[in-house]
Amino acid sequence: MDSNTASKEQNSSLEQHDEPLMFEAKTIPLKGIGLVALQDIPQGTLIIQEKPLLVTRPGAPAALEAFLSSELKKLDKASQRQFLSLHNNFPGKHPFAGIMKTNALPCGSGSEIGAVYPTICRINHSCLPNSQNTWNSDTKIETIFAISPIKCGEEITISYDKGGPSAVRQASLKQSFGFQCTCVVCSQPKALLRESDTRRSRIQQLDGQIGDPFRMWKSPGESLKDCHSLLQLLKAEYGGYSEPFAARLYYDAFQISIAHGDKVRASIFAEKSYEARLMCEGGETPEAKKVKMLATNPSNHSSFMVYSSKWKNTKKEKFGEADNEAFERWLFRISN
Question: What is the pTM of this model?
Answer without folding.
Answer: 0.88
